[in-house]
Write a structure and sequence with these properties.
single chain; alpha+beta; Jelly Rolls; Arc Repressor Mutant, subunit A; 2 domains; six-stranded antiparallel sheet; 12 helices
Length: 339
Amino acid sequence: MSGIPVERYSTASAAPGSGLAYWNTLAAETFNSLVVDTDDPAAFRGVMLRAPLGELSLMGANSAAARVSRISDPARAARGPRWFDIHFQLSGRSANLQGGREAVLEAGDFTLCDATRPYSVRFTEANHMLCIKAPQAALARRVGDVEQVLCRPVSGRSGPGAMLSAFLRSLWTQIEDQRDVGAPEAVADLVLDLVGLAYRPLREGQAARSAQELWLERARALIDERICEPDLGVAAIAEALGVTPRYLQMLFAQARCTPTAYILDRRLRLAADRLRRGEGKGVTDVAMAVGFNDLTHFGRVFRRCYGVTPRDYRDGRRAPHWKPAPAQERDGLSVLVLG
């Protein structure tokens, strides 16, 4: 035996049709302020393993497609210490979003999210993810300024990332099989050392980032925080950041986009997600809730991006072979919208 206590849970032990509710209870116990949602709650299936490893906490979740959201909890964030979640994709695919950044992970890749701030993870297919909770102090000793690498993907197919990927796969298999992994504290130190090594190339690249890139990142994060405000526009964003509208336009131009296009992209993503979930709300309610104040405009841009009307999308009649219209035909929306 490994000597590491492993807790195993499965929705198979839940009452029929209550698998998602059971899963949310597990998620809340493991990670505070975490909510899981899916298109078919009654059919949701999942298996979760939890295990301590020195100063780390490990959680492996093997589940059906789902959307995970960590909501804001200022009271908890004010209480120390600060923790981070290392998301390692064992199988399947995920899209991790936090602070205006998006990290798309394939099997073997990983990223880092701040567990004290809101973030979301989309799993569009059955998947298996290993989440490692690590205290800020332990990460900072290896990574330095954690904010620099937050929600930035690291490939597990080459370089130091491949070393960490191989080690985590082997470690998790041994923990699942209850085999001896050695001294937990020493193994936890090795995991963190490999995380630091894997992030070194990214940190070195970040050191050369320009002031414009940092301002663009702040602008995107601000938009994500205030996306549902109907009056959000170039002037409001520039005022909140303390820059001129012209400078803000220049920042987005470097990314081959505009502030207006970015806002539209984020609103359409959010609208599609809410329509997909239903929640008993009509198309008008959804459009207004995510910041649209012109229903005709909303219907037109939604159809151009998703190939169907918002109502058809809500009812599940989605374009099977949808291809996005050319950027110049999409009201300035130059960013591919993922449904």
